[in-house]
What we know:
9 helices
Amino acid sequence: MSKRFSPGPVAILALAVAACGGGVGDPEPSIAPGEGAGSPVGAVEELVSAINSADFAEASRLAVPGQAALAALAEGAGLEEVADALAEGDEEVAANFWAGFAQGTGSFLTGPVTAVDDGVVTQGDVEFHRITVEPPSGATRSVLVKEVDGYRVDLFASFGPALADKMMAPAERLLTTRTADARLILARLQDIVPSLLVAAELAGTPGDVSQQILALIEVITRVG
Length: 224
């Protein structure tokens, strides 16, 4: 079956605004094809380069594996589709995610941008690097990066405020769906709890949006 489902407008809404800015030196090299970047800033720089050249297959490796498939739940993707992408690899889904992102509010990652690593945010035993991105317009935003076979963008830590509300109904449905696909997806959703907590606590996330994210966490960690 095909995994050619792509995110709609909700997956490319505005990110939480960051207060800080900064500069960056020479671009960092990537580790190897199919792996993440060699540094946290390098992950963002390589993503910007891929988006600028419309090389979304290249951009796909710069998302944490499996997260694009989970994000597709917010767009109504079927459980079988999502489970297949989780089991077989979601590179194609991630490419579609970045393609849709670039056509929407992802414009802040196009053209010449300035990026800087503004330090580590720790949630449990998971470390996230907060990369502040400043596009030519001067409006800074935060992108959260973590190490998974190299450094990659964490979609839920970075874009959780745009995804949480639309993921509530699918998450609740998973709790009452007694299938192997549902169990797999729910287990993988539980893995992103640290990412969602970072998104909820990030400076600039509105209070009502933080509450939506926390409500989603409550659903996906609920004992059924």
